[in-house]
Every structure is written in structure tokens, then in C-alpha cells.
Amino acid sequence: MKKISAGQQTFNAFNLLFLSLLSLIMILPFLNVLAQSLSDSTAIVAGKVVFTPVNFTWINYQYVFGDASIWRSFSVTVYITIVGTIINLLATASLAYPVSRQEYAGRKYIVIFVLITMVFSAPLIPNFILMKWLHLTNSLWALLIPGAISAFNFFVMRSFFMQLPNEIIDSGRMDGCSEMRMIWSIVLPLSKPVMASLGIFYAVGHWNTYMNALYYINKPALWPLQVKLRQLIMTDDISVDPSSSQFSALAHMDPEGIKMATIIVATIPIVIIYPFLQKHFVKGMMIGSIKS
């Protein structure tokens, strides 16, 4: 067993302490939001809530789960996350695979064009004019089509495809596989780690969709969850059933608890899913970034 020097032990201890403090700094705001979402309005207004709930109550979550507009925004977010991630992975793989093979002519020019998009991004107004000309405004397609391929993710997937043994591709061609059949039956099954890691990138981006929805969508029925959350926080626009005196008093007295509960509802799903995909994320990023 290799002996660890005193300097290495000191560094490890300092590194552990630093990362622990950094993790604590990141967790504390989340604990504060969670505590407020589980506290009654009187304690929140009085500023008594810090990291633990005061006068524990579920009323804020009862309102959130009973609000049809929040559920509608939640369903929109789930839809664009699932459909958008599928579109992203298919589009990225369709472009990355051809330019990763040496036998395809013109691949260098395509790589240069994609690289340019990483350095120079289109201004907002031309983008908006283009979306309007394509009749994509006030449509969920405005959140799915423009960002179908991320330049960074394209280079990661291209690097992964370049590491696939040529013998596997050649054997598939000798067996009579068409290019599409070879991609579907050979390349994609071998690409599960990188597909999973990039799928996380794309899914988190769609789940947090905000700016594009704010620019291109004016219909409240098509707002994703992040835009709905912004509406609650910025305008205190909390709808209540007039017949429900309990929720009506809550919304008019102090809507902070409802806002915090909505933040938790918007955050928890992606926090729950991420740990299950983390091993694929790390493996895919390492495979796609190391060239042998």
C-alpha cells in the first residue's frame, strides 16, 4: 500500500473541507426555499423561517397541486423536455456521424461552419424575425427546432463516433447494411454512454427553458413552468377559486409560500432523475473527450 505523505494528507483535508463548505453554500438556499414552502404565511411575513419550517403546513402545496394553470405549464415543460431531447439526440447524431467518418467529403467545411456558430451567435431581433417568418411564434416548435443541435454537444458526439473501430463499420457494410441500418443497429447501440450524457444536457436545458419561451410565446396556455414561475414571482399573479376562502386569504395575505412551493415543484423532478443518470453522464463525457 502506497504511503501518503504529510503534504498530501494536508491537501486532501483542505480539499475535503473546501468542497464541503462549497456544497453547504449551494444547499442552504435550497433548504431555505423548502422551509418557506412548508411554513405558514404568518411565520414567513415575520421573517422567522430560515432553514427549518415554522408552523408546519401543507397548504402551499395544496394550492400548487390544485392550480390548473401550474399543471398545464408543468405538462408543457414535460412535453418539450421529452420531445425536444429526442429531436436533439437524433439531429445531433445525424450530423455528427457523417462528419466523423473520413470517407465523407466536405466534412471539414461542416465542422468549420458549426464551429463558427459557437463563436458568433445570431442577434435576438434577426432570430425573432426568422421565427415569425417561419410561423413558429406562439408555437412549441419555437422551443424545439431552433436549438435542435448544440455545437458543443455535436463536437462531443463527433469525438465519440471517431473512436468507434473502423472494423465494426466495415463489417456492417460487408454484411450489406445500408448507412441508416448501420447507424440504427450498430452505431447507436454502441453510443449509449454518450447519448445518455448529452441527453442529460439537452433535457436540463429544455426543463429550464425560459428566454426563448419569453421571446416567442405570448399565449399563457403554452408557457412552460419556468415562465409561469416568473409570472408568480414578478407579478404576484396568483389565481384562486373565489369559493375557496382558505386559498383566497393565503394568496392575498402573503403569496411567498406559494411561490416557494412552486419553485420546489419545478426543481424536484430533475434533481430526482439526475443521480440515476450520473454514471452514464461521467462515462459518456470521458469517452467522448479522450482520443486514443
Automatic annotation (TrEMBL):
Subcellular location: Cell membrane
Gene Ontology process terms (BP): transmembrane transport
Record Pfam families: BPD_transp_1 (PF00528)
Family, similarity comment: Belongs to the binding-protein-dependent transport system permease family.
Protein's name in the database: Carbohydrate ABC transporter permease
Statement: the UniProt record of this protein carries the keyword Acetylation: no
Cited Gene3D superfamilies: MetI-like (1.10.3720.10)
SUPFAM superfamilies named among the record's database cross-references: MetI-like
Transmembrane segments: 12-31, 76-97, 109-129, 141-161, 182-204, 257-277
GO cellular component: plasma membrane
Residue ranges constituting the ABC transmembrane type-1 domain according to the UniProt record: 74-277
Main localization (coarse): membrane
Membrane keyword on record: yes
Record keywords, A-Z: Cell membrane, Membrane, Transmembrane, Transmembrane helix, Transport
Domain of life: Bacteria
Highest classification ranks of the organism: Bacteria, Bacillati, Bacillota, Bacilli, Bacillales
Topology in the lipid bilayer: Multi-pass membrane protein
